[in-house]
Structure formats: structure tokens, C-alpha cells
Amino acid sequence: MFPSDRPRRLRRTPALRRLVSETSVEPRHLVLPMFVREGATEPVEISSMPGVVQHTRDSLRKAAVEAVEAGVGGLMLFGVPEKHDPMGSGAVDPEGILNVALRDLASEVGDATVLMADLCLDEFTDHGHCGVLAENGTVDNDRTLQIYGEMAVAQAQSGAHVVAPSGMMDGQVGVIRESLDATGFADTSILAYSAKYASAFYGPFREAVDSQLKGDRATYQQDPANAREAIRETELDLAEGADMVMVKPAMSYLDVLSEVASISDVPVAAYQVSGEYAMIEAAVANGWLERERTVLESLTAIRRAGADIVLTYWAVQAARWLQGVRR
Ligand code: PBG
């Protein structure tokens, strides 16, 4: 009798499928990226990311409480300052918007969730690059490292449980670790954006943070063509003391994610970025895709490829779906 192998037997009923399902997504796996805008009196909508806003300090606190109630695993905070300068000095200033908002969240939600801070200069510089510039206009790796070290301390002092260097400077994890250890923050963790690609999928994020960038980040972020290099970057970050590593973007880089997960001895995160969010939302708005099924499938795929943690703008929404809460 042919066929003798019948994989469909295990797909017959929802209960059978549930029993043999290999991958799950739970609210605790999801991290919500959030934006807070200095001086804002009302939340500001981000047109290319429908449903995502630049928060005021007040609306940020409220949204953080809602996220905690929905059971998300963590929050990743980005600051949108009023003023930019060549050194990105708002990043290290204890009164800079990101540090102020971290203190707000630390007092509002405390240890009820994991508070993470984006550690990068691009939101704060007037040229929009992730580091400071040398005389010749290139991004100066080693001078940037010193500033990252200070920025890490400012964020740890402000209550970040985790700092997340996203600037792709060589040596950033090592310098940040040293700087934290030297200032009494040996317990603050580092989530390293290890394999971060120079991706067109960050497009909507530039609006989200009022990016001043002209040009691209190809001299420091990775070439989308390269996979082997992602392993090298990850191994360096692990050797420098990364507590967790990340691959970014997610959906177009699942092969990279899978390889990184196979060599990492620390938890692996993947960032489902602004362009991934925008694509699905646009298709949903046109009636071309079903939101819940599409979003949950995308998150499941990212988990299946090896992510322990997924950063996603749908974190709260997805957490509610997963708990069967309809709002
Ligand atoms: C840099 C940073 C970027 C994103 C997160 N951190 C932008 C960039 O590297 O150009 C993109 C996130 C997204 O697109 O959702 N601090």
C-alpha cells in the first residue's frame, strides 16, 4: 500500500497539532521597542508605522504599565531629543531624554519587567551617524567607544537592567563591559547587536527617531550579502562579554539567525524591525493580509529559526492575542 508514510495523521485535529507543535511564542519572549520624545505634550504618530507613537514622558509610563500587564518580556527604550549636536552629547547627559525616561520607567515598573536601553549615538548626533566623526568625515571608531562607555554608565545609573549597543563599532562590547565594571555596575547586562545589517528595512525607524542621517551606515553595519561575517561578529562580542546577542533585521535574515543560534552559548535575540512592521501593516490596511495570523506566523518563524527573544512593535498586541484577550 502506497503511501505508507502519512505525516498528515498528526495534522488531523487541533489537539493533535497542538500536541506535536515544535515552537511556541509566549508573551515573555517578546520585547517592545518604545520611543520617547523630549518636550512632547501629546503622543506623536509615526505615519510609516501605524499604531506606533513617539511617547510623551507621561504616555510612556502608561504604555509601559500596559505592556507589563500584557506580560511582555521587556521594554527597549529609544530617545528622541529636541537638540542634536556633533558629539551626541544628549546621550551621556543624565538630563538627556533617554536617561530621564529610563528613570521614569524604573520608578513606574521597577523590576516587574526588563528595562533595556538603546546604546547608540545616532538619535543624538546632528549628522545622524552612530558615532562621532573624524576630521575626514568618517565615523571615528575609537573616540566613539569612549562615549559609549560613558553612555552605558549613564543608562545603568538611570535604572537600565540591560544596555543594548546598536552602533556596530569594533570593540564596543568590551569597552562598555569595562566601563560598567569600573563604576560599580558589574550586574548590568549587555545585549549586543552583534549581527546588524545595513538594511533598507530600517526606513520607517528613521521617521520614528527624527533621524538626521544623510547617506548610509555601510562602513559600520554589515553587508546584507554576508553570513560568515555574522559569526565573526558574534564570536567577538561573546569574547568581549556579551550577555545576550542579537541579529537584526529578523525576517530576511533567518538563515543568519539560525547560524548564530547554533554557535551562541548565551540567549539570542532577533529584532523584527520597523520595515517588517510597516510592510505587514500596509498589507493589512489594504485588506491583503490578516493581521493576527500574519503577525503570529512571523513571530513563530523567528522563534523557529532560533531566537529566544524577539523585539517587535507588536509585542503588546501579540501578547494579548496569545493570552486570548481581545481588545
Ligand atoms: C540605531 C538603530 C536603528 C534601529 C535600531 N537601532 C537604526 C539604524 O541602525 O539605522 C532600527 C530599528 C527599526 O528599524 O525598527 N540606533
CATH topology of the domain at 23-244: TIM Barrel
**Relative strand content:** 15-25%
Discrete helix count = 11
Q: Which geometry do the CA atoms define?
A: globular
The assigned CATH architecture of the domain at 23-244 is Alpha-Beta Barrel
Would you identify the regions where 5 or more consecutive residues have pLDDT less than 50? none
Q: Report, as a whole number of angstroms, the end-to-end distance.
A: 51 Å
Instruction: Note the run of SSEs as H and E.
Output: HEEEHEHEHEHEHHEHEHHEH
Q: Give a short account of the largest sheet.
A: 8 strands, parallel, barrel
CATH class of the domain at 23-244: Alpha Beta
Q: Strand arrangement, largest sheet?
A: 1-4-5-6-7-8-9-10
Fraction of helical residues: 25-40%
Estimated radius of gyration:
20 Å
Binding site for 5-aminolevulinate 1: 206, 217
Catalytic activity: 2 5-aminolevulinate = porphobilinogen + 2 H2O + H(+)
InterPro entries: ALAD, ALAD_AS, Aldolase_TIM
GO biological process, one term: protoporphyrinogen IX biosynthetic process
